[in-house]
Amino acid sequence: MKPSVLVITPVVPTGAIDVESTLEPFRGSGVSITNVFLDEGPSSIETDSDVIACLPGVMRAARLSAAAARAVVVNCMCDPGVPELRQALTVPVFGAAQTSMHVAASLGTRFSVIDVLPEGRDYVERQVEKFGLQGSFASHRALGIPVLDLFRDTERTLAAMEREARGALKDGADALVLG
């Protein structure tokens, strides 16, 4: 039997982001990967209230789907429910933010987070502090594009990403985390 990873995408499915095609390249690696969306909750996570709104669904999804998993990944840069899942489950639980920020810090001297909206700055800075990465954090940069609009105009999104990546480099980052 293949090792199994459960990916919890903590939003209701909208079709705006194709999680399955993102996971597909990893499926040939001998690991079984299952993605689940929430039955109820927000359609995107951009605010503290969105994080709170998704928590019941994240816990329910884990209870229903994590029994055979060897690891759980929460597919959201806000890491909603990660501490609660770590207490409730006996398998490793990875949050996208904590994992990617630590990897970025290990790859470079300083990293920046390129996020969707400027309002996310406080949340990202709280995460950086919670993860003990203040000395490796260069900046928070925002695209100014909500999550559900990222793939509607890819040229706009890519131009914003390039602009903010260049800004992050000027801020002293040598590694980037896409939030």
Q: Would you summarize the structure shown here?
A:
This protein has helices at residues 19-27, 48-65, 82-88, 96-107, 121-130, 154-170; strands spanning 4-9, 32-37, 71-74, 93-95, 111-115, 137-142, 175-178.
Description:
With 179 residues, the chain is of the alpha/beta class. Helix content is 41%, strand content 19%. It contains six helices and seven strands.
How many distinct beta strands? 7
Strand content: 15-25%
Shape: globular
| Residue-averaged pLDDT | 93
Helix content: 40-55%
What class, by secondary structure content? alpha/beta
Q: Number of DSSP helices?
A: 6
One letter per element, helices H and strands E, the order comes to EHEHEHEHEHEHE
Main beta sheet, described?
4 strands, parallel
Largest sheet strand order: 2-1-3-4
Rounded to an integer in angstroms, the radius of gyration calculated over CA atoms is: 16 Å
Low-confidence stretches: none
What is the terminal-to-terminal distance?
33 Å
